[in-house]
């Protein structure tokens, strides 16, 4: 799992698509020098999550203010448990 975690500092444009719309934009403004706290995306994703006809943004779990390795594991478990239900 460690190679899947990329901070805003190092996420390349090619990988930004995996960060989602919000995460990708945070990366762009962070790397552009705007005052955004460093971070990384823990997210659920469905291939047809959003389309021109419908948006399902916010349908799945969001976990904020995750600071430790233990909290990251809990956040991942929380997101996964929402997707499985």
Automatic annotation (TrEMBL):
Matches recorded under Gene3D superfamilies: ATP-grasp fold, A domain
InterPro entries the record matches: ATP_grasp_subdomain_1 (IPR013815), PPDK_AMP/ATP-bd (IPR002192)
Coiled-coil stretches: none
Segments forming domain Pyruvate phosphate dikinase AMP/ATP-binding: 40-82
Signal peptide: none
MF terms (GO), sorted A to Z: ATP binding; kinase activity
One family name in Pfam for this protein: PPDK_N
Protein name, entry field: Phosphoenolpyruvate synthase
Species assigned in the record: Clostridium formicaceticum
